Give the backbone structure.
Amino acid sequence: MKKFFLEAGPVLRALTRSRAGAVLIALQCAITLAILTNAIFIIQDRVRQMARPSGVDSENVFSMRVKPYKPGFNLANDIDRDMAAIRAMPGIVDAGVINSLPLSEGGSSGRIYQSPDIKPGDGQFTANYYTDDHSLGSLGLKLVEGRGFLPEEVKRGDRTADRGEASIILSQTLAKKMFPGGGPVAGKTLYTDDGTAQHVVGVVERLQAPWISFGELEQAMLLSQYRLEPAYLVYVIRSQPGQRNALMPQVEKKLQELDPDRIIRSPRTQSEIESDTYASYRAMAVILGTVIVLIVAVTSLGIIGLASFNVNVRRKQIGTRRALGAQKGDIIRYFLVESWLITTGGALVGVGLSFALSWWMVNTFDLPPLDWRYVPVGVLFLWVLGQIAVLAPARRAAELPPALATRSA
Amino acid sequence: MLQMTHISKVFRTELVQTHALRDFSLNVAEGEFVAVTGPSGSGKTTFLNIAGLLETFDTGSYRLDGQDVSHLDDAARSRLRNEKIGFIFQGFNLLPDLSVFDNVDVPLRYRGMSGGERRRRIDKALEQVGLASRAKHLPSQLSGGQQQRVAIARALAGTPRILFADEPTGNLDSLMARQVLEMLEEINAAGTTIVMVTHDPELARRAHRNIHVMDGQVTDFTAFAAAQTERESLAA
Ligand SMILES: Nc1ncnc2c1ncn2[C@@H]1O[C@H](COP(=O)(O)OP(=O)(O)OP(=O)(O)O)[C@@H](O)[C@H]1O
Ligand SMILES: [Mg+2]
């Protein structure tokens, strides 16, 4: 190890004198480091985002849409009949209606304020879930304060039915934003955009919005009111653990039996919904992973290529070094030191390039800034890569006969 | 100093076998200056490579500085080259990307000497060949004669017991060749054994002893003085 660094002086001096190839490879290393650190950071960031719980008991929840087509149907009656029937099925924990599901990529949002006297820039973004008194049970949400909706709080009706005064349940994140001072939240009143009062009755530990691109993914609330329109309603059903897959077709069949004059659409598990929504994240991770593999391969080949080229043009020099007393190990060490210097030179530029690339992406794609700890790990990786890549050509150099000192041109 | 008995060396390629050396025997006494001559392809370089431990041989035995070196492994041979042998090549063989100073430093680093010791030896060796002021130059910035003097300094810095030179003046004009030869004579006078291959009969004449190689064998050698004959018989 000590020998390794002692050797660095003359190797570096020689390198600065014939540097064309080395500079190119160093530059390639710099670009590799910048892409490597940022790509891995983005992949990690996506993986971390995908791992965040939605608040819903995703493994046991499924949902479907119901569209009656017989003229003169009465949706309120249908819902009450359907719900009673589903809840009575063995293996079902609870069922209810809601306008959209967390991470389903479609739904409603608005702002919510502490006072009816609304000033621009006030309030917080929130996803709005219009639902009934079974929402906690059917979604499997975890209440941390207050209570769920009471049956008598639930209002439903035509187009304007979801615009009135109602009870609300906040996600904990939203509750903390609205009441930064802390203390009990249930019993307080908040206001929607048009100044309508909404009464907080509870807080759930977690409830994500429908959109992953939504800046405030963790800010959402349930409202105890919904519109009686098929396009605005989803049946959401929660089974006992392990029974979801068996129950989903049974529920679908049951609903069809109760009223054949309707279409049951898109029965889906919540796990499916969440996984589909994150498909673009996974695709991004796969693409970036491929880019990483390719660029690492290309850089390795570059290092190997340069070293092989150097072995060939230095045959006589290597023979001369052997004649002057170099052991095979000394020849290998020379190439290792040289590769280390090149990768280090690349790394010096690459560190700057990594942060520059991150800065550009932060500004262009609104990504979080690179965690600096990825950079030293990347440099370490580059060093190891450089040493491994150069090993085979270095070994070949060490095996060149010393007689090349006198025999080669 | 150097005792070769019945050495043979065959180069095999797919088509031909070349008997580069056959039944080659030679003794060189300590402190001698031996010139080796012979036609092209006669095996002079092969002899020098084997003597300098750059190449192995097929049969026979070889003692260098009292040590049987026939069966040494690569590492031991490298160590001997580094510590006991100095090489001077026809093409100078300086490392083109290293300064004069760093070139002379190369074998000293392989010997694992301390920085101070290396510097002292490099300065002394460059002083000896009259190039102390050129330490920072690159080989390409020097004339051929100067480059060969750097190579001599590099060979000397490790204080070798024996110096092998393969046509050291082959690439030099006669004036520079003379300078280099004078330098070798000085080194020899100071006690280092020298074996030099040369084509130039005039240079060969200035050695203590001439060896003529033909078809891989020593055909004839001329003793110059009684002193040399005496030395030879001591070595034998
Ligand atoms: N590596 C090798 N492979 C095959 N044959 C070789 C090899 N090296 C030398 N020879 C052959 O061995 C013989 C002796 O070669 P050597 O180089 O010792 O001659 P030389 O006396 O030094 O000649 P010159 O005066 O031209 O330098 C020649 O016939 C040569 O072709
Ligand atoms: Mg020759």
Summary: The radius of gyration of chain A is 32 Å. Chain A is about 50% helix and 20% strand. Chain A touches chain B at residues 6-7, 10, 13-15, 17-18, 316-317, 320-328, 330, 401-403, 405-407 (CB under 8 Å). The CA atoms of residues 340 and 376 of chain A lie 15 Å apart.
